[in-house]
Amino acid sequence: MRFVTGNQQKITEYEHLLAPHQFIPVRLDVRQPQGDDQREVVRDKLLLAYTEKRARLFVDHTGISVKAWNGLPGGMTKEIWGQLGIAGFLRLLQCDTNRQATVRTIIGYCSGRRIYIFEADLQGVIAAEPDGLTDTWESLFIPEGCARSLAALPLEEKLKISARGQVAQKFKEFLSQQAVRTW
User: Fewer CB in a 10 Å sphere around the end CB: N or C, the chain?
Assistant: First the structure.
């Protein structure tokens, strides 16, 4: 099975989350699909990857949706964060009292015959300033019940509560069931 991504952090996290299932990370040199609907982005990314690789594979898309912004950036998190960065993101939120946000991770898997979609959400708030070593939105997102941002949490703790950790568990259970059926 292949994991289509160019993000080393995702590769590391999925190696932990999906073990003992293994995958081969691969990159695609094509422009990734964009849009505000994360499910459509995942589906389009999956079809594009399958057309190129013709192998069992999965893709991941994680986005943050800010309630005060009517769910944006959502499916366009990577592009909007790339334009704004931490300072711009916080500047746009400075007048908003509602800092609630949802992180959604969606995994799309193509078996070669069928597409499967798995998703999970994590509720939280946007911090007033970054917390953690990363310069991604994870340094601003504080999950419900936590005092620190996702970026500041130890990897093991982060993977237990994150949307990626939750959706990876669903995907791992699916892969385990598929493995039993093929024997």
Answer: C
